[in-house]
Design brief:
Length: 707
């Protein structure tokens, strides 16, 4: 039987990040030479081992916690030292801090013993410079031999990348077998009640990295939030700290900041992920959106290239320093890969939404040629077979077989479990396309550029085609199909994808109500959030990556659509699930988690390979805050719509320091759901929208499907 190449598990590791550097170790603080443990810089593992010992014994772990936005603290004990008896008297506090080009550790050894304590503290190191894709596929590199430099210093170098570890006042041993496992060591003497702090640091020089750390701190606001449900406050605090650590820039344009997708696999520029995260962060300012738009605009496609998926006007999927290869999956992605069906429309929609939040005209106008080119891609390249829908197919056999956000190979399944064959027409992508056409038209009109009417007509035709082709009869009444397959047959499983249609304009009011009702069924909403596939479908598995698990960003996007459309009961159920998950995960929401029923364990089941922290999972906290206060500005139109989710069920909620047109705005929603908005620019007026009744699933076929 052939050996399986398994992706390493992540769920029980502790991570710190200050992009482009991240570190993953175990709950005791050890970084062991196994799995995905290590310190990574961009796409390379620059340290594969950092194991602490006291007198050649491992201290025993007690607890750990966060140490600021980029750090973690671990408490361990050396119970064989100090006084005899049940109480431990020698303790080691290990504090790890990630920096943009390295990492530091402090080891505070303290004693409450009545007698002096003598010991040797050591840290065993290792470096394999393994590329991230090798680690992801379950492999590792061979340990490199280190060279001793100045006192207390050890160094590795290969292909222009230089890794240096320095231990303050430490002795370095690189002799014999220790060349591949160098040791830093410190003799320690503690008087009764005494302590000593030891330090070592890692520095990385990486001139070939395609991403870099921003030169300054984040320019988004940090809101002051008061909430009856304190889970929201804790989630927001932890999420904003994580997002601070995920900030990146293009080395050639350090002024433009975007969010790396997640630790450890995706700490680079990802079109879809970076765009969605920036869109959810708009209530805190437009700076992140502007940087993300410009970074991706500079890499917008200019030619047809099947090998990379590039096409004129298309927005990039992901950026690496070299080819990203996973042999077990027959995947070989070029360094700049364009295999995404939705990022181009999401770019257009982010530009529009940032403009509505107050992105200044002098920042919008330089991006309008890129907008027009993106719309041309939508009209000329997105529909390869001319049927009027946006579709995808990987023609190389080496790229992503599925190119929507659910991009695993088995993500698009019929109700009976069969895989759909490409080309694939995804439901939510048609919603993005409709919205991009309308939003693009609004921008063209506002800036006196031609073709707005063409794109509105394009959107109208797409809506008519969608209504005729996608609606099918399901267990709970009519439902949009997940997709159309190669033969244009509706892929009739019930999935979270349909929730992304809310708010795009593609659905009528009655259709939106039916979708809201479907999203409220136990089959989709019975876990800690929104399941990616319903429990009624044959392909459902609670730990399937895209066919039954729950993704925080997916839940937040759909929750936001429900809330803005006025489907309060459905939105509240998802909000409670997301907050319950946040509480279970110490308020650091992972990329995804299991779609089991809430009653199974009373907490969500970890998806063992989920990234954490992850940009759009962390940004989901801001999306939840926005839905809670219900703030929806249209700065060019002089209007702000207010439709709070907070109120009788969620409780009172107030947020100060939100940003509209650069002005700090406060929204205060009382327990009855009545909002008060202060700080708005004088030329904006508010409109408060009342709640509408909760939807119920329809019991009859959709009108367009009647025969």
């Amino acid at each position: 039987m052939s050996e399986r190449h398994l992706q390493p598990l992540l769920h029980d590791l502790v991570g710190v990040v200050h992009a482009p550097t991240s570190a993953l170790g175990d709950t005791a603080g050890q970084i062991r030479p196994s799995g995905v443990q290590g310190v990574f810089h961009a796409d390379a593992r620059v340290l594969s081992r950092a194991e602490l010992r006291v007198d050649d014994r491992e201290p025993e772990a007690v607890t750990r916690g966060a140490a600021g936005p980029h750090g973690a603290r671990f408490v361990t004990l050396a119970r064989w030292l100090g006084d005899p008896g049940a109480d431990p008297t020698v303790r080691i506090d290990r504090t790890r801090q990630a920096g943009p080009s390295g990492l530091t550790e402090e080891l505070r050894v303290s004693s409450t013993a009545a007698v002096p304590v003598r010991a040797t503290v050591s840290v065993d190191l290792g470096c394999d410079l393994a590329p991230i894709e090798l680690v992801k596929s379950g492999g590792s590199g061979s340990p490199l031999e280190a060279k001793a430099g100045e006192p207390g210093r050890v160094e590795w170098a290969a292909e222009g990348l230089v890794v240096t570890v320095t231990g303050e006042a430490a002795t370095v041993d690189v002799s014999g077998d220790r060349a591949a496992a160098p040791r830093l060591s410190w003799p320690v003497e503690l008087t009764p009640g005494g302590s000593v702090t030891l330090r070592w640091r890692l520095a990385v020089t990486d001139p070939k990295a395609v991403v870099a750390a921003p030169p300054a701190g984040p320019d988004w606001s940090v809101p002051e939030v008061r909430a009856d449900d304190r889970r929201l406050v804790r989630l927001l605090d932890r999420s904003l700290a994580d997002l601070r650590g995920l900030r990146l820039t293009d080395p050639a344009h350090p002024e433009d900041v975007f969010l790396g997708a997640g630790v450890p696999w995706f700490l680079t520029l990802f079109g879809r992920d970076s765009l969605w995260a920036a869109r959810m962060m708009l209530p805190l300012g437009t700076g992140l959106a502007a940087g993300t738009l410009r970074v991706l605009a500079r890499r917008q496609g200019t030619r047809l290239d099947p090998a990379t998926g590039e096409a004129p006007g298309k927005i990039l999927h992901e950026l690496r320093r070299h080819e990203f290869t996973l042999p077990a999956h027959e995947l070989r992605l070029p360094p700049a890969y364009y295999g995404t069906v939705d990022a181009t429309m999401l770019w257009v929609n982010l530009l529009h939404d940032a403009w509505r939040w107050g992105l200044p005209a002098d920042q919008v106008e330089p991006l309008l040629p890129h907008l027009e080119t993106a719309l041309r891609w939508l009209g000329e390249h997105a529909d390869a077979d001319g049927d009027g829908f946006v579709e995808y197919v990987d023609t190389t056999g080496r790229g992503l077989a599925n190119q929507g956000w659910k991009d695993s190979g088995d993500a698009v399944r019929f109700r009976d479990g069969r895989l759909a064959q490409p080309p694939i027409v995804l439901a939510e992508v048609q919603g993005y396309a409709y919205q991009a056409a309308v939003n693009g038209a609004d921008l063209l009109d506002a800036f006196h550029r031609p073709d707005a009417d063409r794109w509105r007509e394009h959107a109208d035709q797409l809506a008519r085609r969608f209504r005729a082709a996608f609606w099918v009869d399901g267990r709970y009444g009519p439902q949009p199909a997940l997709a159309l397959d190669r033969e244009k047959r509706p892929v009739d499983s019930l999935t979270s994808n349909i929730g992304h249609l809310l708010g795009t304009g593609l659905l009528s009011g009655d259709e939106s109500a039916q979708v809201a009702a479907l999203l409220s069924t136990e089959a989709l909403a019975g876990g800690f959030g929104l399941r990616t596939m319903s429990t009624d479908d044959a392909g459902f598995s609670p730990l399937s990556y895209h066919c039954g698990s729950i993704w925080a960003h997916d839940t937040a996007i759909v929750l936001g659509g429900l809330a803005r459309a006025g489907f309060t009961e459905a939105a509240l159920r998802l909000a409670d699930g997301l907050l319950g998950a946040a509480e279970a995960f110490d308020y650091r929401l992972p990329e995804l988690y299991g779609g089991d029923d809430r009653a199974l364990l009373g907490r969500p089941v970890e998806y063992p390979a989920a990234c954490r922290p992850q940009a759009w999972s962390a940004a989901a906290a801001v999306a939840l805050l926005q839905a809670g206060v219900g703030l929806y500005p249209d700065v060019p139109g002089g209007q702000v719509e207010v439709r709070p989710l907070a109120g009788p069920e969620l409780g009172a909620l107030a947020a100060g320091g939100l940003r509209i047109a650069g002005a700090p705005v406060t929204v205060d929603v009382d327990r009855a759901g009545h909002p008060t908005v202060t700080g708005l620019p004088a030329d904006l007026t508010t409109t408060t929208i009342p709640r509408i009744p909760a939807p119920r699933p329809a019991g009859h076929p959709h009108p367009a499907r009647r025969r």
